[in-house]
Amino acid sequence: LAKQSAPNGLRFYDPAVQAELEARTEMERDLRVAIERQEFVLVYQTQVDSTGRAIGAEALIRWQHPQQGFVSPGTFIPLAEETGLIVPIGQWVLEAACEQLVAWADDDSTAHLTLAVNVSAKQFQQPDFVDSVRCVLARTGALPQRLKLEITESTVIGNVDDTIARMHQLKALGISFAIDDFGTGYSSLQYLKRLPLDQIKIDQSFVRDLHKDADDMAIVQTIIAMGQALGLNVIAEGVETQEHWRHLNDRQCHAYQGYYFSKPASAVEMVKRSLAPPPMLN
Ligand code: C2E
Ligand code: MG
Ligand code: MG
Ligand code: MG
């Protein structure tokens, strides 16, 4: 929208806005090509239990752009969501994740690992989403009991009943659900009460300073207590230091994810690290 409305109703030309618009158009075009040429890869970040042992991973998408190199999901996922390209991209992610689960199932040392997959609102709301998940499971042979879908509040907003119905259909297949970035939305508690969730992911913005900010600590402690009272598993994201881990562990958080345990890595690398002895709390 290069021509913005001025308060007096006149329209003016803004070169900065124009440049941004062109960059977006170009990225949208590149994204379409990327889907065709399969320029995406998944990396995996370990999730650990209270003893530090790997119990699973989260799959995170990466785009290897032929000219620009690595493009972060923070840049292209929002555009993919706006343009609807998230639907084919999300479908690819689901397939690749299920194939990874099948590969893990083949080996005793990895067969127990679960895999969490991020699902965007627009993808989840596709009329055939449940069917497409069913098809991917059937085609790949992945165990639904090892698959976890991460949704956010944006999926739920304005679609509460439909979201709940779909979640039940998917749960009937054996899939579990986490609510991602918990605490950053507007009406999280409403949803907590109504959605058939299995896990809450405490957003990393509350974890970052919890060792020095009493308010963050209070929020984290309350989320953990609430999760426990509601019978939900609670995982903290963005655990970067042993201090973070110790504070969360003292409050009986169930699971952890963050750079302290492992950065997102290739599947091979992730498994190699997860077989190493867990870090000790001292
Ligand atoms: P998210 O699902 O909340 O994923 C967590 C993000 O935090 C990841 O960023 C991860 O690399 C980063 N992270 C993990 N541990 C730490 C830590 O200790 N400290 C800090 N500062 N950051 C940490 P990433 O991979 O850049 O992904 C960003 C967001 O992009 C994700 O947030 C998710 O919303 C979205 N995303 C990633 N992959 C997919 C995907 O396959 N599908 C969809 N729909 N969205 C995705
Ligand atoms: Mg996530
Ligand atoms: Mg998150
Ligand atoms: Mg996030």
Automatic annotation (TrEMBL):
Residues 24-278 form the EAL domain. It comes from the Bacteria. This is cyclic-guanylate-specific phosphodiesterase. It comes from Vreelandella subterranea. The chain holds residues 437 to 718 of 718 of the full protein.
